[in-house]
Amino acid sequence: MSSDASSSGALLLCRAEPDVVEIAAQLLRERMLLAEAGRDWSVLVPEGKPWLHGEEPVDRVLTGWATALAVGSAWPVLALWWDGDRSGYTLASGFRRTVGYEWLANGTPVGEDEAMRTFAARLGLDPVLDMQSLEALARPDTDADARARMLGLLAVLTRAGLTLPPGLGPSEPADRLREVARVQEGVREVEWPGWRDAVRAEFGAVEKGPLGPWVRGPRARALAAVQLAAGVPLAVWAVRRRSGGWGAAAALLMAQGAAGLAYDRVRSTGGASGHGL
Predict the structure, then answer these.
(1) pTM higher than 0.85, yes or no?
(2) Domain of life, per the record (predicted)?
């Protein structure tokens, strides 16, 4: 844990609208505030601070959450985090390996250039203009501390449509982020609704979403089976490591896998949506 953990803060940036993000975020079983953050972007602000009470630092907790949100979604999730010693990001996208980068408090880069290139590719950023800006963030600069580096990263993302509400940004402590998020227009409180309502919400999202043949059939069953197969061992590992973030990822994988199989079965047999749901 950081020597100044009380200054830690974190944001989850999701490249999807709040209506879509809310359903997935409920399965994290963590209280969060959800707000719009520009064209096709949403921001999640954690209400709790598990990194202060557990054995995991803020970056590991956020990596678990970002992975949990991304594995069952068609949109990427970017976790931004910082504490008294360093700042950084983790990008999660589907089942692909997460990619991240970090800077020490004085702005010293600690990462590989390849991470920046992968980051740009997965978010569909401009391979020339945006990549030049990202490469600059990975070079030594005595005039840029960690906060300046993170602001530079956000500046690149504004060209991809991201617009964070004023006051939600790097270096702010978690309590301040929560206060700012609460007064945003249209902010939503996200919390665990219980399994029954969570599954019903998942079914509703699939019913309305443009998933085409993925809704049911062999490919849908295969995806659901993969989610379940990945979730079970991950849950065991998370319990052994007492990892809340990865525990959330495992729970979400298993929930979505089970819901996917159930949905495919109900729809394939022509069952009505009211059969026990």
Answers:
(1) no
(2) Bacteria
